[in-house]
């Protein structure tokens, strides 16, 4: 086990060193990023042009939209997810560029060794289903083996990872079918069976296989099979400590069930009767999707029950008696309908809270330091929503100003373009507008994530639906002279013209009462629960002083009598010391190995011993800093501005009691929302004022 762990750590450290090297190259040579940006835009432009001239591109676009639609269904149902959209898309790519080639290579090698062709019954109905279902689990296995946050996944994360890999695999499989189908009819239809591959908009998890004429069996799509198996592994992993290791037979049974469904459909009328009889006992493929939905519902209940066990350690809304997905959905839906400016905050708040909860519940030492900066990512949506409109309005004002320098007719003509744009948009039916928006989302997702793509598409639709307003400002650009007027106009246009926004607002106002009655029974909510507001931190004065040890200028908290360095609070106590711990550990291992295997070479350079000692000290400082972070988080003092300033205020109060003859390990008690810590602070008198040198945090048992 230790050798496996060392191999895992070595491979991961090596890959991370390559990643860091690439990032340093990008920072050192900015033209790399510029070249990549140009290449990305050229690729997107060429792809858009190909939609008009190349039939296969349009075929690919259709299947791409269907695949994204299936993934969004899973995204919506997995309410306890903690993974953001971008990693999920990477699993889709893994299904495309990893699973499909491996499956093809494996099947061909098998035929090369044992003979036969890929059209043989034993290949189509036995070998192919086995290898496909097994290889689709490879991305999940690699993630669990190498990822630092693997131990802190929710059950919904397992489901999403499996579904995303299945979506990628099915995308390539269906593209191959569509491209290779040369007939004028539907590629998914046969002469005897009728329509066999079903892509229906109002179907949950479309893409399933079932004959339209007298069907006797069916098989669900690849995302459903892989999601069910992955969720089974997540359940077994969660229960492994309560039950024996035999619990891992559960996902194995689900894997065999999926292979049976796949094989029975591929080999119907050709497989032995006993195989089809077993398949009939398991529901002939019709029970697979209900089984997944039941497992998913049970996993959601289990996830939220686990989160409620540590609710006191998580940020909660006013009168939120227990955490549940219904109130989360209600608040996010209400923000979309009535307070769209708060939607991104709700989205980030709920996902961040779930991720924090599963880190506290199940995270190991590696996962403890992997909390992501969620608040920074949700701001991307705001940038996408406002950036395009601001650029357009600035360009409009520029052209309008150019028009006033010549004559008014050119300005009016330019404004008429926006009038015509809105007239065209208003003439479209609702489903035509929706199709355009979905296409814009899909195209944007080739370059950005889902939510920025959603923002870009809705912004474009808002501009098309606000042509008259924009034209009015072009004709009279003086209305945009002040920055506040321009920003208010941009925000007003965007927030008032989001497609279906008015209809959603009306629907929200009508159904609000009924939903609130239900939530009153579930969560005992008060009438107007707003977005959680952060309390204002204590206002502490900061200034720059010369550090007595290094002689460098540093920023400190001070009240005129006590001095507390800012970095002691915001970096040292938060596990953010400027040390690349992976590189440090690797260098320590290399030096120790050199000392053990080539002692003479090691002793020949005196710098080796001093360097090893320095590295050990750096490692000790990092581990001590990380322990401080864990202790603070264990009592509910997370890394926020308010908490950091409260800690600084506590230490400043302690410093006021420091005497010149008693500066070492001054004791005090730091209280958090869910516990207390004993603090031992060491001070130094600088110009007669107590200056904080270091601090220790010790958990209190009672």
From TrEMBL:
Q: Does the keyword Transmembrane apply?
A: yes
One Pfam family, please name it.
PrsW-protease
Q: Looking at the keywords, is Ion transport present?
A: no
Residues crossing the lipid bilayer are 34-54, 60-77, 89-110, 122-146, 153-172, 220-239, 246-265, 290-307, 380-400, 435-458
InterPro entries listed in its UniProt record: PrsW
- GO MF terms held by the record: peptidase activity
Tell me what this protein is called: Protease prsW family protein
Q: What is the lineage of its organism?
A: Bacteria, Bacillati, Bacillota, Bacilli, Bacillales
């Amino acid at each position: 086990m230790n050798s496996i762990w060392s191999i895992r750590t070595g491979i991961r450290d090596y890959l991370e060193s390559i990643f860091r090297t690439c990032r340093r190259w990008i920072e050192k040579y900015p033209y790399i990023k510029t070249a990549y940006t140009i290449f990305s835009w050229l690729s997107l432009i060429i792809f858009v042009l190909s939609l008009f001239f190349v039939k296969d591109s349009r075929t690919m676009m259709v299947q791409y939209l269907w695949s994204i639609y299936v993934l969004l269904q899973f995204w919506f149902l997995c309410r306890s997810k903690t993974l953001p959209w971008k990693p999920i898309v990477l699993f889709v790519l893994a299904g495309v560029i990893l699973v499909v080639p491996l499956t093809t290579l494996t099947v061909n090698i098998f035929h090369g060794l044992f003979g036969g062709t890929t059209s043989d019954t034993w290949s189509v109905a036995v070998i192919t289903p086995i290898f496909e279902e097994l290889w689709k689990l490879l991305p999940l296995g690699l993630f669990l083996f190498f990822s630092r946050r693997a131990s802190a996944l929710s059950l919904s994360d397992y489901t999403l990872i499996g579904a995303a890999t299945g979506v990628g695999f099915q995308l390539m499989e269906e593209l191959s079918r569509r491209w290779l189908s040369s007939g004028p009819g539907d590629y998914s239809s046969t002469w005897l069976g009728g329509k066999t591959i079903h892509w229906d908009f109002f179907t949950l998890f479309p893409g399933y296989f079932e004959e339209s004429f007298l069907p006797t069996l069916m098989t669900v799509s690849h995302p459903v099979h892989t999601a069910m198996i992955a969720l089974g592994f997540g359940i077994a992993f969660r229960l492994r400590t309560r039950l024996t290791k035999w619990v891992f037979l559960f996902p194995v049974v689900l894997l065999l069930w999926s292979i049976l469904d796949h094989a029975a459909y591929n080999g119907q009328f050709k497989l032995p009767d006993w195989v089809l009889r077993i398949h009939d006992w398991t529901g002939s493929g019709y029970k697979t999707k209900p089984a997944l939905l039941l497992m998913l519902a049970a996993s959601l209940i289990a996830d939220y029950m686990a989160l409620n066990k540590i609710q006191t350690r998580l940020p909660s809304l006013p009168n939120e008696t227990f955490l549940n997905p219904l109130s989360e959905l209600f608040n996010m839906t209400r923000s979309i309908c009535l307070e769209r400016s708060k939607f991104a905050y709700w989205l980030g708040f709920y996902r961040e809270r779930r991720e924090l909860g599963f880190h506290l519940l199940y995270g190991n030492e590696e996962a403890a330091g992997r909390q992501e900066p969620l608040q920074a990512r949700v701001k991307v949506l705001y940038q996408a929503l406002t950036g395009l409109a601001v650029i357009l309005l600035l360009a409009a004002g520029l052209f309008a100003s150019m028009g006033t320098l010549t004559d008014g007719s050119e300005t009016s003509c330019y404004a008429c373009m926006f009038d015509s744009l809105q007239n065209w948009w208003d003439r479209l039916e609702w489903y035509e507008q929706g199709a355009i928006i979905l296409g814009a989302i899909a195209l944007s997702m080739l370059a950005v994530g889902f939510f920025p793509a959603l923002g870009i598409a809705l912004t474009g639709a808002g501009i098309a639906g606000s042509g008259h307003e924009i034209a009015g400002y072009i004709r009279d650009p003086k209305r945009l002279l002040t920055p506040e007027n321009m920003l208010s106009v941009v925000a007003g246009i965007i927030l008032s013209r989001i497609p279906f926004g008015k209809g959603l607002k009306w629907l929200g106002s009508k159904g609000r009462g009924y939903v609130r009655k239900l939530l009153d029974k579930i969560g005992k909510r008060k009438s107007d629960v707003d977005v959680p507001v952060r309390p204002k931190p204590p206002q502490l004065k900061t200034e720059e002083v010369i550090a007595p040890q290094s002689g460098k200028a540093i920023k400190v908290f001070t009240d005129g009598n006590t001095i507390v360095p800012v970095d002691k609070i915001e970096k040292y106590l938060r596990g953010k010391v400027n040390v690349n711990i992976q590189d440090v550990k690797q260098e320590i291992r290399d030096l120790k190995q050199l000392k053990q295997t080539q002692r003479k070479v090691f002793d020949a350079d005196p710098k080796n011993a001093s360097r090893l000692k320095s590295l050990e000290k750096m490692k000790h400082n990092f581990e001590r800093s990380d322990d401080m972070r864990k202790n603070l988080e264990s009592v509910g003092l997370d890394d926020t501005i308010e908490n950091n300033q409260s800690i600084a205020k506590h230490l400043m109060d302690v410093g006021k009691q420091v005497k010149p003859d008693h500066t070492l390990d001054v004791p005090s008690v730091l209280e958090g929302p869910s516990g207390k810590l004993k603090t031992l602070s060491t001070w130094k008198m600088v110009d007669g004022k107590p200056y904080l040198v270091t601090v220790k945090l010790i958990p209190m048992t009672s």
